[in-house]
Amino acid sequence: MEEGTSKSPGHSAHTDDCQQWDPREDCDVRQILDRIADKWSLLVIALLDGQSLRFTELRRKIDGISQRMLTVTLRQLERDGLVRRTVYPVVPPRVDYELTPLGATLHDTIEALVTWTERHQAEIAAARDEYDRRAAQKQLVDA
Known about the structure:
Blueprint: H1 28-36, H2 39-47, E1 53-54, H3 55-61, H4 67-79, E2 83-88, E3 94-99, H5 101-142
Antiparallel strand pairs: 1-3, 2-3
């Protein structure tokens, strides 16, 4: 095995020389960014800010997410230490999800991203309209 490579179960191989903005697929930083930048993960983290929610509450609040995708997302966030899953021994079983202290620190960053998006959504919409207009004109010229 190459030096700096881990083959432990449940952990993908990675190199220890990964740096900020390293595009290699096997870098832990990229894998973590892939996870937390996923649209479903962002929504789950945002919804769990300061509260715990049951699976059914999360599913009802996240428009368009399937039961399977929510299950996968919650498991991945739990594995990464961002979400805590608590099972209560009642019938039917009750399961609550909440942010861990680590997940709460991530929420602050997500909130800044959402604030930026809200502040610049009109500019982005205008840029999209301009791009679409140019693409449509190019399509007419190429036809």
